[in-house]
Structure formats: structure tokens, C-alpha cells
Amino acid sequence: MSTHGGEQGASLIVDSQLRELARVNAWVHDWAQRQHLPPKVVHRLDLCSTEVVTNIVTHADSQGARHISLHLGWQGEAVALDVEDDGACFDPRTHPPPRPATSLQDARVGGWGIPMVRHFSDGLRWRHEDGRNHLTLLFRAKTPAWPATTPTPSTTEE
Questions:
Q1: For labeling, which of 41, 64, 80, 102 is most exposed (least CB within 10 Å)?
Q2: Average pLDDT per 10 consecutive residues for the chain, totaling 158 residues
Q3: Domain extent for 35
Q4: Are 6 and 145 in contact (CB under 8 A)?
Q5: Is residue 118 a part of any domain in this protein?
């Protein structure tokens, strides 16, 4: 991964528990702020990271997922979110979207998370290796206009 502003990326390991979503959210926002990402990219990154972790906790936990490893960094002009888990092998690329309901009685809750992640990310890669799922989501973003280690220009005067 290339570096921007001297930062190679950030990593976080969480337990496969819904209570960890707050840590994931804070971690994503902290890194995005240091990278000076546009609010639209931050929103998409936050939405997708929350959905992916929620899916792992909800669906893979019963099949052995204990820990989820996340990494944020740059791949060219895209932010890459890498997510690894030790749950059952699951390829989100092949998961079909649910059929739209034709009536309110036919409507069901759930099943739209993966289509939402596909929609809000700009790329999705997956592989299963050494008993772990490896998912990479890409989000197009311009590199920071100034180094991440430099304070953000301010309009207030002291």
C-alpha cells in the first residue's frame, strides 16, 4: 500500500461482538479525519465497515468467527478497507440480492446489506486463505491536499 502524509495505514482487531461497532466507527472516523477525506467518502466508508462487521458478527459468529481484523490504507487513489475474519467461508460476490417484495405482506427484513456494500463501495475483492475470509472494499478518494501530519488550515485567527 502506498503511504500518504507519512501514514502507512491503521489496523484494528475486534471481537466478534456487536458492542465492538462503536470502536470500529471511532477508528474509521479517526483515520479518515487524519487523511482529510471528504465527508461523502467518510460516510460510505463508515456505512460499509459497519455493515460488514455486523454481517460477520450476526452470521459468521455461530460458525466460529471470534475475531475480526480491519486495516485502512491507500491503494493508489482509493482508500482500501481490508477485513479478515475466521468464520465459515463466505464469498459475498456470489451472494444474490433478495427479491424485491411485491406487497407489504411479502416484505422481509434483512438481506440488503451486501447489495448496499456493493452499491456504496467502488470495488470489492474477496478470497479465502488459511481458513480466513479476506474482503477488500475500495473507495475512490483523492489523496490529501496536504500531508496528514500537517495541521488542517483554519479560518479562525488566534
A1: 102
A2: 59 94 98 95 97 88 78 95 92 86 81 90 96 96 54 39
A3: 10-93+111-140
A4: no
A5: yes
Closest C-alpha among 142, 31, 24 to residue 83 = 24
Helices (H) and strands (E) in the chain — how many of each?
A: 3, 5
Q: How far apart are the first and last CA of the chain?
A: 38
- Which residues does 130 contact at the CB level (< 8 Å), separation at least 6? none
Strands (E), the chain: 10-15, 67-75, 78-85, 123-129, 132-140
Q: Are 46 and 71 in contact (CB under 8 A)?
A: no
Q: Quick count: other Cβ atoms within 10 Å of Cβ 150?
A: 12
DSSP 16: S
Number of domain units in the chain:
1
What's 32's domain CATH number? 3.30.565.10
- The CA R_g of the chain, rounded to the nearest whole Å, is 17
